[in-house]
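Hi Prof. W.,

I finally got the DUF1778 domain-containing protein prediction working! I wasn't sure whether to trim anything, so I left the full sequence exactly as given:
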Amino acid sequence: MQAISRIDMKTDTETKLLAERAAAAAGMSLSAYLHNLIWKNAPAVLDEQQRIVMSNHRYDAFIRACETPEAWPRSTKLHAAAEEMDAEGFQWR
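And this is what came out:
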């Protein structure tokens, strides 16, 4: 059996009433309605954050840029941050 966890949420009255009306119209409890919305929406949101979609032309340009790092100017802020992390003992993969 799957463990049950609780989500506590605060929202304005108008949003709560809207959600309650939508849940009732769908024939669901508010909890079931919100659960359903999460399972419908969350995978798409996470997929969008994990995937980059680009044309073949842009992909080829990206790969060329990755293969020739000397063509890119070095960021002094990024270099300083990397040195600071090295000094703190950060383990790079």
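The helical segments are 13-25, 30-50, 56-67, 76-87. Does that look reasonable to you?

Thanks,
D.
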